[in-house]
Amino acid sequence: DLIKAGIGHKAADFIAMIGRGVSCIIFALVVAWKFALAFLPFVPCIVLSMHFMIHFIKKYTIQEFVSYGQGGQMAQEILSSIRTVISLGLQKKAIEQYSKNLQTAEDMGKKKGLITGLLNGAINFLLTAIFGIGIYYAVYLVRTECETFGVDKVIPALFTIITS
User: What pLDDT, on the 0 to 100 scale, is given for residue 2?
Assistant: First the structure.
């Protein structure tokens, strides 16, 4: 049950997304092969950007949770022996140690946000570039090779490539 709960929808969603991406690329190649070939180099760039974003988010989230866990553990120890801490006058030291753990977690959160923002910006830039280049190249193909690549073929190919 634990494995089923962990994998459950994720495996099905993964298979569906891969199937949708591959089928959209195949459809675009069948409908307007010359147009679709111009955009295939962009696909690995977007996939790699997504991979790096997920990798860094996972890495920094784990480090952030470890720091919060250490801070929580220390706070629990201090609260469980509050009489000893107060009698020895260690309140300021305990607060400093707790603040240090929270600062580490905050630093990890900032790094995660920066990396996520940069890679998300790269992904959005690539998608916008594909759209812009696609419109430009579609107009070029419709003007120069209108008997083979008409508007009825180029526009569906553009949107299926963006969908993939």
Answer: 64
